[in-house]
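Structure, all two chains, one model.
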Amino acid sequence: MDLSQYAELFLAESREHLGTINQQLLEWERVPESGEPVGGIFRAVHTIKGMAATMGYADVTDLAHRMENLLDILRSGEHEATDQVFELLFQAADALDKVVESSVSGRELDADTSDVLARLDATCQALVPTAKPRPPPVPRSVDPPQAAGKWVRVVIDPSATLKGARAAVVLRRLEQIGQVNTVQPPATVFETEDFDGEFGLRIETSADDEVIEEQIRAAGDIAEVYVGNGAGDRLVERPEARTRHIRVDLRRVDAMMNLVGELVTTKDRLAQLSAGRGDPTLDDVSLKMSHLTTQLQSEILDARMTPVWQVFDRFPRLVRDLSKQLGKVIEFKVEGKEIELDRAILDEIADPLVHLLRNAVDHGIEPAAERVAAGKPPSGHIVLSAVRERATVAIQVSDDGRGIDRAKLLADAKRTGMLDEDVDVLSDELLLRVLSRPGFSTAAAVSNVSGRGVGIDAVASSLRTLGGGLEVLSVPGQGTVFSLRLPITLAIVRALTAEVGEERYLLPVTHVAETVDLSEETTTSLEGEDAMLFRGEMIPLLDLRKVVQLPGEGHGRRPVVVLQIGERRSGLVVDALTGQQEIVVKTFDAPRGTLPIFSGATVLGDGSPALILDTGGLV
Amino acid sequence: MSHSVLVCDDAIFMRTMISDILSQAGYEVVGEAETGLQAVAKYKELKPDLVTMDIVMPDMGGIDAVREIVAHDPDACILMCSAMGQQALVVEAIQAGAKDFVVKPFQPSRVLEAVQRVLG
C-alpha cells in the first residue's frame, strides 16, 4: 500500500497531539500531584506511536515508545515526577516534534536524539530497577498486543450526565464476573469532565459474550456495547466519533473564496442587467441567485474560521521556557481560547504575539527580588486574552510588570529628534508612536530573548496590513497592556464607496466611526494643518484628493468620513459617498510606484476594479 | 415484601423528596440519617436492603460512610446521590463499593431506574 498519501494527515494529526503533550506537560508541571495530565500525555504519545508504526517511521515509533515507558511508570502514581523528569519530558517532546517533522519530510534528522533516548531509559531504570523496558514494537504492525481475554468497547449515552462515573459503574460490574485489564483510556480519566463516554478494556472471564453485554447494559445509560476478540482498542481510539471532519488544505478554501468573490460580482451584474429589463422571470432568477450566493459565501467564511487556541496553545510553553531561561517566575493565563478568527488572520498574528509575549517576559516582568521590593507578589502574571467585540476581535497581552519607562523613552525620543523639546508628557498615544517608530529600541541592554529592542514597529505594521490596530496602555509599576484589534475576516469586508473626481475608492468600515458633512463653522486649522471640531474635540482633516494626488479642488457640500482607531481619530474629506457594500478583498500586488495607502483591490458590481484604502494607516 | 431503604442526606428537603419518591413506588423507608456517622450506625441497626447516600455530609462524608458500610457488609446496596460536577467523587465512591448513582436534580423515573438496577 502506498502510504505517502497519508503523510500529510499523519503530520497534521501528530502536530495536534504534540500540542496536547506540551500543554498537558505544563499543566502537570504546575500541579505535579494531579493525575489527569499524565493520562492525556500518555494517550497522545501512544496515538503518535501507533500512527508512526503504521507509516513505518521507526525513529518516531522508537522515541514515542520510550516516552510511553516512562509515562506508564509515572501514571501509576507511585513515583513522583521531579523537576529533572519534567525537563526530560519537555526535551523528549521537542525531540519527538523534530523526528516527526524530519520523518515526514524525508530529511536527515539534524538533531541527535540518542541522548534523550538514553536518558529516558536510564530514568525508567532508576525509578523501577526491576522493570525491563518493553522492547519497541516492530514498525508497520498496528495490531494490539494479543493479551488473553476479550475486548470490550462501551459507549455511554451521549446525553447522560457524569459519564465517567457511569463508566466506573460498568467497570465494577465487570469486575464481578472476571478480571479487567488494560482499560483505555485509563480509569483516571473517568474522574475528569472531558471524558467523552467511550472506553475499552480487556476482560478475562468464563462468561459468554451475551452475559458480558447484559452485565454492561445493566449499568444504565449505555448507548453501544461491543464484545469480541478483535482489536477493539483501535475503535476506541478513533477520535470524534460523532462529528465527522475532513481535513482540507487551506489553499482550497482560499480558492473557493476567490470563486465566490467572482460569483458575487457576477450576481451583482446580473441584478443590474435584470433591473433594466422588467422581466419578472429574470428578476426571480436574479433574486434566487443572490440568496444562494450569500449563503454560499457565509458557509465558506464559516469554514475559514478557526479558534484562536490553535495558535495560542503553543504560547504557555514559550513563556515557560523563556521565564526559566531568565530565572523569572511567571504565571501565564490564556483567556477566550474559543474565540474564532479567519485562519489567514490567525496565521499572521502568531509572530506579533510571540514578539509581545517575549517583551512581556523579558522587559515587562521584573525579577522576583525587584518585585518583592516594590511590594508585589514575587511571581509575575501575564495574561493573553481574546474577546469578540462586534465585527472585531480584540487580543490583549497584559503583564503586571514594571511598565514602560516613559521618562527614558521621552528623553530618547527627544535626543533622536522624533519629538520636540517642549513635549514634557508622553501620553499613551505618543508612547505608541514612539514605540512603533522603525528601529526604535527601548532595551538598555540587548538580550538574546527579545533581541534588539522592542520591535513594536514590526507588530504595528503587520496589524496595519491586516486592517487592524494596536493600542498600548502602560502604568509605571503596575504593568503594560498591548491590545490588538482585528477584523474577524479578511476575505469580505463592508466598505463605503467614496468618490473624488471621476475616481472611486473603497473605505472598509472597520475603522469608520461615522460620516458627517463638512461645514465652515466646524473647520479650523490646528498648528497650520486643517482640522475639524468633532464632538468637542479637534481632529485632523485629510482631503482624499490630496491623499491620492488628484489635482483640482472639491466643490459644494463635501462629506467627511471620521476614522477611528482606539482613541485616535481623523477626518477624511471626499467629494461624495455613493453607498455601502460587501466587497471581496483580493490580495494586491502593488505595481512599483503605487502610493503606499492601499490595502487591496476589489471588483465592483459593474465589473470595474477599485482600490481599497488602508484606512487604519490614514488615522 | 417491599424493600427497606435507609435515606442519608444532610438536607431535610432532599431526604423528604427521596423518601416520597421511594415510598410512592412501594418501597419502605425505614430510617433517615443526616451524617455519615449516623448512616453507618443506622445501617448496622436496621440492615436495610438499600441505602441512598449523599456525598457531602458533616461528620464523615458519604464516601467514607460507604467504605465503613461495605467493610461491615460487602453485599450492601448503596446508591450515591450526587450533584453535577462531582464526577471524581462519584468515581471514588463507586470504587469504594457504591453500586450506582443518581444525579441531582432528581427525576423520579431516573431514581427508580437506578434503585431497580441496584436491587435487581
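Residues 11 and 76 of chain B are 23 Å apart (CA to CA).
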